[in-house]
Amino acid sequence: MVKQRNKGEKVRINFINKAINFLKESKAELSRVVWPSKKEVFRDTTLVIASILIATAIVAAFDITLIKLVQIFVIK
Q1: CA distance linking residue 36 with residue 45, whole number of Å
Q2: Which tops the pLDDT comparison, 40 or 76?
Q3: Which of 14, 26, 43, 57 has a CA that sits 20 to 30 A from residue 1's CA?
Q4: What is the pLDDT of residue 57?
């Protein structure tokens, strides 16, 4: 076992050991991941973009409607 001369050195070694352990665990975890196929990624990306466009259209419609109502009732 390595003897530490002062507290600062002990903290540095502990930090390095924790960092190395984190990297080892991360590598092990990534080896267990089931990655999606290109087809699944394309399908999901298309779905997200379509959902964003639909939500944008709905918000724009409400915005335009409210602007017209304010112009009719307030600005007259």
Answers
A1: 12
A2: 40
A3: 26
A4: 99
Q: Please count the helices (runs of H) and the strands (runs of E) in the chain.
A: 2, 0
pLDDT tens, position by position, 35-73: 999 999 999 999 999 999 999 999 999 999 999 999 998
Give the up-direction half-sphere exposure of residue 48: CA atoms within 13 A in the CB hemisphere.
6
Question: What is the separation of C-alpha 57 from the centre of its chain, rounded to a whole number of angstroms?
Answer: 24
Pick from 56, 37, 33: which is nearest to 45 by CA? 37
Q: Both ends of the chain: CA-CA distance in Å?
A: 86
SS3 percent helix, strand, coil of the chain, rounded to 5, is: 80, 0, 20
Cβ atoms of 36 and 44 within 8 Å: the answer is yes
